[in-house]
Amino acid sequence: MRHDIYSCSKPLQYFNLRNITLPHPSTKRTLIVLGAFFEAEKFVLTLKRLDPSWDTVIYCKTYGEVYTYIFTHPAENLVTEMDASFVCGLLSCCHRFKQLYIYEEGFGSYRKDRFNPAKGIKRFINKRTGVGNHVGFSSFLTGQFLYFPALYKQQMPHYHKQLLPFNKPFVQQLTQELPFFLHFFKEYETFQALTNKKLGIYITNHTLNPQIINRLIADKSHFDCIYIKPHPHIRDNNLLTQYGINLIRSNIMLEFLWVLLLANHNQITVYHENSTAVLWFQDQMKCYNMGNPYIEYTIVSEYINNL
């Protein structure tokens, strides 16, 4: 039986996969969830119970398990976050998929400098197997799902792969999916109780920035509550308790949290480093971008503001 494989490694990617319709879908859909985020196994159990759209849901602890499953279960369509990888090149050469699609990963999808850093033997094999030097440019890639295909074409005017829109605009999908996603994490209930509060929130990257933590602590008197929201791939949330700051669990989707907090008239100040999570709500919050400047981040930010 023909089947398609979709893979994700954090809740936002799963959210985006639910907003995709393939041009030529198969009769069977398999979802692979890589346990790279806090309480991933619990997330998958809830997903299996609540989301009947998948014929099979596979939980993997490592990328090795993900690629092994794909290798032993050839797919008609493979939908994943990345094409410019050594393993994708090998899977293509072994005919493990017929069509490969990748999907948006925030403002990074629109960056011109998002290159594949492979070296040595991997670089040699990448060239032989058609892996691109830039994300989205592998010869075996069919196309990309993006929220702003026109902006991507503006950034990459000579791009010739398919640029496919998601089914619904991001905020519309967010609003419609909120009741469904509230079932996944009880932590949302805690924030639903906050009303008319001044909140300071630090959104981390893959690693903590002590300078931003110190800034948040220094500004503490301006807020009723302060929080750290670790990146989804930071699984050991206990490491953050040493700072004495309230924790937003790393598996919580901030985009849903903004909807809840803003609906209850909370005033939100965010400290971040080029976080995509604030882009859709930047006109409703005070945001301090303390990361290294990226021209593409500014471009995407202004594009959303002008919608």
SSE topology sketch:
Blueprint: E1 3-8, H1 11-17, E2 28-34, H2 40-50, E3 56-60, H3 63-72, E4 75-80, H4 86-93, E5 97-103, H5 120-129, E6 143-146, H6 149-155, E7 162-165, H7 170-181, H8 187-192, E8 198-203, H9 210-218, E9 225-229, E10 246-247, H10 254-263, E11 267-272, E12 286-289, H11 295-305
Parallel strand pairs: 1-2, 1-4, 2-3, 4-5, 5-6, 6-7, 8-9, 8-11, 9-10, 11-12
Could you list the spans in which at least 5 consecutive residues all have pLDDT below 50?
none
SSE succession = EHEHEHEHEHEHEHHEHEEHEEH
The count of strands amounts to 12
Helicity level, as a percent range? 25-40%
Give the CA-based shape.
Answer: globular
Kindly report how far apart the N and C termini lie: 42 Å
In the sheet with the most strands, the strands line up as 3-2-1-4-5-6-7
Largest sheet, strands/sense/barrel: 7 strands, parallel
Number of helices: 11
Mean pLDDT: 91
Our Rg estimate from Cα atoms comes to: 20 Å
What does this molecule look like?
This protein is α/β, with parallel strands linked by helices and 307 residues long. The chain has helices spanning 11-17, 40-50, 63-72, 86-93, 120-129, 149-155, 170-181, 187-192, 210-218, 254-263, 295-305, and strands at 3-8, 28-34, 56-60, 75-80, 97-103, 143-146, 162-165, 198-203, 225-229, 246-247, 267-272, 286-289. The protein folds into 2 domains: 3-171, no CATH class; 185-305, 3-Layer(aba) Sandwich (Rossmann fold), CATH 3.40.50. 33% of the residues lie in helices and 20% in strands. β4, α4 (86-93) and β5 form a beta-alpha-beta unit. The longest helix is centred in the middle third of the chain and has 12 residues, at 170-181.
